Amino acid sequence: MPKRILKGTVTSDKNANTVTVLVERRITHPVLKKTIRKSKKYRAHDEGNKFKTGDVVRIQECAPVSKSKRWEVVEAV
């Protein structure tokens, strides 16, 4: 099964080896037929603390690294 890859913006890099990434997606409302934005934050593993707040990155699913980390940073966009 292929791993999901998402693109988002780093919102926090304060924790060691961890970044918080805000992923935003657009969906069409089922009744209003209006495009709305939904966002979700993911905690991703960042080995070496390479990425800083404001960077646009790609994250990929991985095996659980800790209680809240199930994603890893692949690359900067």
Automatic annotation (TrEMBL):
Keywords: Ribonucleoprotein, Ribosomal protein, RNA-binding, rRNA-binding. Signal peptide: none annotated. It comes from the Bacteria. One of its GO terms (cellular component) is ribosome. CDD domains: Ribosomal_uS17 (cd00364). InterPro entries: NA-bd_OB-fold, Ribosomal_uS17, Ribosomal_uS17_bact/chlr. Part of the 30S ribosomal subunit. HAMAP family: Ribosomal_uS17_B. One of the primary rRNA binding proteins, it binds specifically to the 5'-end of 16S ribosomal RNA. Belongs to the universal ribosomal protein uS17 family. This is Small ribosomal subunit protein uS17. The lineage of its organism: Bacteria, Pseudomonadati, Pseudomonadota, Alphaproteobacteria, Rhodobacterales.
